[in-house]
Amino acid sequence: MEIVSTQRQKIHPHKFTLWIAIASIIMMFAGLTSAYIVKGSLPGWSTVEMPKIFYYSTGVMLISSLTIQVALKSFKERSMQQYRRLITLTAILGFLFITFQIIGFRQLAHSGVQLSGGSGAGQFLYIIFGLHALHVLGGAIALLVMFIRAFSTRIRNYNAVPVEVVSTYWHFVDLLWIYLFVFFLLK
Which of 7, 79, 113, 127 could be 108's S-S partner, Cβ–Cβ 3.0 to 4.6 Å? Predict the structure, then answer.
C-alpha cells in the first residue's frame, strides 16, 4: 500500500502581506473615486484639465512595467547582467515618473488649481494623485533597494521572492495609475 502525501502549496508570507496591502489600497482609492463621483453632482463643482505631462508620465509607467517584468524574468534565468541593467532602468523610470508628477502638480498650481479653498475636481486630483505618488515613491524606494542588492558584492542570494514582490507591487501601482488617469479623463 502506497501512501501519497500532498502538501498544500502555501503562499509566501511576504506575498500574502503584499496582497493584503494591495487590497486595502484598492479599497482606499475606490472610496476616493466614489466620493469624487458623488461630489461631482453637487452645485458649484468645477472640473480640471489635466496637465499634458501626466500623459508622458503614463507612458513612463507603462515602459517601467515592461522593464521590471523582463528584469524579473532575467533574475529567474540568473542572467544577472541583464537583470542589473533592467532594474536600474526601472528605478530610473520610477524616479522619472515622480519627477513628472511634481512638474504636473506645479503646472496645476500655476493654472490656479489649489488644494484648499476651491471646489471641485482639483482638490480630488491633488489628494488622489498625491496618494498615488506616495505609493509610487514607496515602490521606487523598493526598486532602489533591489538596485543596491543587484550590485552588491556581498549578497549572492538568488531568492526570487523579493524581486517578485517588488515586481508585483510595481505592476499594481502602474495599473492603479492607468485607472486613475483614465478615471479623471472621463469624468
Answer: 113
